[in-house]
Amino acid sequence: MLSHEMIWKAIDKLAERHQMSASGLARRAGLDPTSFNKSKRLGPDGRERWPSTESLAKVLEATGASLDEFMRYLTPSNHLPPDDSFPPQGSSIPLLGFAQAGAGGFFDDGGFPAGHGWDVVEFPAPIPNRANVYALEVQGDSMLPLYRDGDRLIVEPGAQVRKGDRVVVKTRDGEVMAKVLLRQSARMIELTSLNPEHPNRSFALEDIDWMARIIWASQ
């Protein structure tokens, strides 16, 4: 049974995943910045205040999180991903080729690893031990001269992405690409190609499945 505490903890965890405070999450969702403050979770008479379904819908839309993802935060561990079949992340991280990444079943709606078929690679020493990071192996020459065939890009879904960051983007059509984020608005995303021989790309946000920041490259 859902409790008042579980719902609010799930909201806090979603904000944390997107590197925001509860008030920052409310602001991004177009709500009053104080909507999710701890002081607003109880009324003056001490009665519990629950977030409205409209507020939750706006939060999911603002973060790109699915309802399934939000529901996972309601588990006692409040930890993603919950799939026990997924390789544990300690001294090693999951590895997938770019061609495989375009197929279904390897990621959840937030771009986090899920399911079977992943290889495992030793965690590169220069990178801090972060949860949920994974590696994508470059295939082909579309990312030259920056990344060559066989290079491994360490990706962190859920990390804050800013203009100029190198990112991996997966479209709803299953196309996976590494680009540089040029501009992002409420409706569009513009990407610069790493290889000058390949065109820059623009997409409506609704056509993007997920976008994750590249935090390191094994070259």
Automatic annotation (TrEMBL):
Keywords: DNA-binding, Transcription, Transcription regulation. It comes from Rhizobium helianthi. This is S24 family peptidase. Residues 25-50 are annotated as: Disordered. The keyword Electron transport does not apply. Transmembrane segments: none annotated. Residues 94-215 form the Peptidase S24/S26A/S26B/S26C domain.
